């Protein structure tokens, strides 16, 4: 098998003296959708932020596309065709939808702006209708679509998604997950997804990891983890909607 696009080895991350990640190992291969599930506070978002350089890992190595990015500043990582849609969306609320998308395209120096704009508008038609509306006036679901679309405007090779379904209605969650599936299917985009909605995430993913208290405790294909008694008891009881 070819070298993974992303390799995380022995990564430990601290907040002050508190250890949030206790030695994380994982791989994401090109063209895969990989998900990480776990309870709130397990360290999933910390891992996402550590991959992106803020906070930096105190121990271990993170290699992306053959380059060690463990000590690299965030703005340099963003230029390596890796994009993040962070937890809580973090769009620019006073800017219009179009202006938010322009911010995403700036990393690629607007080289393919019109083409990419058409692509994200076909993926999320609602954004096309709201193009001149301020980001802060959009619904939660529309803001999540905008956060993903803004990340896509940088033409990433790998997309990091942190809790894309958080707080959204089931119908909107389905739209978001359908869009992720379509990006992977039509463009071969590599996606690393952190998600509390274990049922949807594992149905979507080729492979998955389970994180508990800063450690990965299980891994397998999406199907294997969905079928696991342990996973079902901890994350899926009552959650399969």
From TrEMBL:
**Keyword Oxidoreductase part of the UniProt annotation:** no
Query: Might you name a Gene Ontology BP term for this protein?
Result: L-amino acid transport
Q: Which residues form the ABC transporter domain?
A: 6-238
UniProt key word Nucleotide-binding: yes
Named from the GO MF annotations, one term is: branched-chain amino acid transmembrane transporter activity
Keywords from the named record: Amino-acid transport, ATP-binding, Nucleotide-binding, Transport
Q: Which family does it belong to?
A: Belongs to the ABC transporter superfamily.
**Name by which UniProt lists this protein:** ABC transporter ATP-binding protein
Gene source species: Siculibacillus lacustris
Which taxonomic lineage does the organism of this UniProt entry have? Bacteria, Pseudomonadati, Pseudomonadota, Alphaproteobacteria, Hyphomicrobiales
